[in-house]
Amino acid sequence: xxxxxxxxxxxxxxxxxxxxxxxxxxxxxxxxxxxxxxxxxxxxxxxxxxxxxxxxxxxxxxxxxxxxxxxxxxxxxxxxxxxxxxxxxxxxxxxxxxxxxxxxxxxxxxxxxxxxxxxxxxxxxxxxxxxxxxxxxxxxxxxxxxxxxxxxxxxxxxxxxxxxxxxxxxxxxxxxxxxxxxxxxxxxxxxxxxxxxxxxxxxxxxxxxxxxxxxxxxxxxxxxxxxxxxxxxxxxxxxxxxxxxxxxxxxxxxxxxxxxxxxxxxxxxxxxxxxxxxxxxxxxxxxxxxxxxxxxxxxxxxxxxxxxxxxxxxxxxxxxxxxxxxxxxxxxxxxxxxxxxxxxxxxxxxxxxxxxxxxxxxxxxxxxxxxxxxx
Length: 375
Hints:
Layout: H1 6-12, E1 16-19, E2 31-35, E3 38-41, H2 43-62, E4 67-70, H3 74-86, E5 90-92, H4 104-122, H5 131-148, E6 160-164, H6 170-178, E7 183-187, E8 198-201, H7 207-240, E9 247-250, E10 256-259, H8 277-281, H9 283-286, H10 296-300, H11 308-311, H12 336-348, H13 357-371
Parallel strand pairs: 4-5, 4-6, 6-7, 7-8
Antiparallel strand pairs: 1-3, 2-3, 9-10
Helix pairs in contact: 2-7, 3-7, 4-5
Keywords: Ribonucleoprotein, Ribosomal protein
InterPro entries: Ribosomal_uS2, Ribosomal_uS2_bac/mit/plastid, Ribosomal_uS2_CS, Ribosomal_uS2_flav_dom_sf
Region (Disordered): 296-375
């Protein structure tokens, strides 16, 4: 399946960045402009980076790599779990324990404890204990399952990590760097792209945007694994006739393993067809930004409509759970749609740290459908 079209990205609100006060200057190359103090991410560059990440992840999956999906913020929890389960990979969606990668031996002992508690429930041992002890062990089991349930069958360190919200998951990023584990991540305008190996610039707060990105990574993994299984079958047939050596099989944790053979280069797929030319042409008008004010040479090098004073703005490190909303069609080419959208995001800046983030994303889900129905 090809990567999402420009229209899909627009519908999901992937283009909305953070408030201009909370930006990282290193993200300037991915910023199209700003409207009402909210940065607009250049979807052309998002699309290009998404294609690159999709192809890379697909190739890694083809070669049997093991993936860990990470996203512990409210807006990302369900999407991360669904994406990981869709491609039979692993996930952390409640809390990242310090040392989850760098102290894997200790984490494995806690996974063993979780398995032990599950076994006690299954064989009836738990029912024979006093009520107070049952309650204590039940609470321990629930806590361990929330934190480690998504990696209980991983049986080793992941080969690749996919992350939503680099600022919130900075400990995971630090541990991955220490172990030289490659990182694929959705990077918002308040994050440092240098921390990520495969950057996908986009909104990391809106539920629909997060779900779209997680789904794309899951599709890439499934596609790579499907092609690997096809190769496995072809090798098996060829081996019977004595044409090739080596074998391929599914190992522990769903890992595709090559025995007696090196990694194989997967055939590339054609790029997505039928992109949304109208959206591409009317992007500046739809965002209410004067197209003439965009320096084409600067944008070609990664720049956007960002003033020098903005570039001097200090980077604020606090995380932000802001989301966006809009109530008119982007196809009209007027400024009103983007006004409504960025006003909603600006207002929600005050909600940073609020645990009701899922409701914020829900507003986007309801209103964007109406906003893009005519695109």
